[in-house]
Amino acid sequence: MRFSTSVSALTFAAVALAQDVTNGQPGLVFDPPSVNATKGSVVTFVFDGAPGNHTVAQSSFQKPCEPLPNGFDSGYIFVPQGSQGPFPTFNLTIEDDTKPIWFYCAQSLSKPQPHCISGMVGAINAPTTNNTFDAFQALAKSAASVVPPSPALSGVNAIATAGPGPLTGSFSGAAVPTGTAPAGSGSSGGSSGTSSSSGASPTKSNGAGTIQISGVAAFLAAAFGVVLA
Ligand SMILES: *[C@@H]1O[C@H](CO)[C@@H](O)[C@H](O)[C@H]1NC(C)=O
Ligand SMILES: *[C@@H]1O[C@H](CO)[C@@H](O)[C@H](O)[C@H]1NC(C)=O
Ligand SMILES: *[C@@H]1O[C@H](CO)[C@@H](O)[C@H](O)[C@H]1NC(C)=O
Ligand SMILES: *[C@@H]1O[C@H](CO)[C@@H](O)[C@H](O)[C@H]1NC(C)=O
Ligand SMILES: [Cu+2]
Fold it and tell me: Bias category Low complexity: which stretches (predicted)?
């Protein structure tokens, strides 16, 4: 998967992806792996790896491959080989940009190891010292196991207002969250609780802008040696 903030960033992402080799599995990454996003920004994950079957699940810094209590989780989004866009997306609205948001891919069916332990982790608003993204990813690569998350729209410091989609045609989901959650409600992600009066509108109304994070990469593609664009 990859993050991008603009067309030029997308181009960069493709290059980075082609060059990335994590434990012999090209492309098992969020790419780029770390972005900044201000309060009210909508971060879009695009599951455009074909084939791919990934999640976006919130974790803590200390335990990168385990779900954070009350964290968000997109569920497993399957995109078959040869799929054409538009691809399924998952939108997170940032509710607090003063704290880092860590996440991982929970896919564990891959060989030789789960995506998270291959380094498929990402961060929003990671510190630039100490608990950096690089430190987080290093912890992920040394994790003993990956703990599956539970589907959830609401996270801590970020919230989704809808489950990932569209899951139609050849796209499918497993253990995806359903329903709708009003932005800024905090909902079941109780500890986020940042329902300020301005809310966290999934629009550009506050000028925060929209960030795209693409879900590229797949364990099947890696196995076949396919470089995903
Ligand atoms: C986020 O912002 C900080 C402070 O401006 C900067 O040092 C860092 O490189 C940024 N991180 C990313 C991923 O853009
Ligand atoms: C995607 O991965 C999940 C978790 O490993 C699995 O339950 C699901 O069956 C997979 N989807 C497909 C279509 O293979
Ligand atoms: C980073 O860690 C060092 C060593 O533990 C500590 O002295 C320093 O204050 C920390 N910096 C930040 C920004 O937390
Ligand atoms: C995510 O946001 C984009 C841009 O507004 C929108 O086109 C897309 O339908 C949204 N995805 C979901 C699953 O709501
Ligand atoms: Cu993955």
Answer: 172-185, 193-202
Contact 174, 78 (CB under 8 A): yes
Protein residues whose CB sits closer than 6 Å to any atom of ligand 1: 34-36, 128
Q: How far apart are CA 28 and CA 20, in angstroms?
A: 8
Q: For the ranges 35-49, 64-78, 156-170, which has the lowest average pLDDT? A: 35-49
Question: What separation in Å is there between the alpha carbon of 128 and the centre of ligand 3?
Answer: 11
Q: Domain boundaries in the chain?
A: 17-217
Query: Contact 43/124 with Cβ under 8 angstroms?
Result: yes
Tokens 């803590």 -> residue: 60
User: Which pLDDT value is given to residue 210?
Assistant: 52
The residue whose CA has the least distance to atom 11 of ligand 2 is: 78
Beta bridge partners of 94: 158
Handedness of CA 136, 138, 142, 147 (dihedral sign): positive
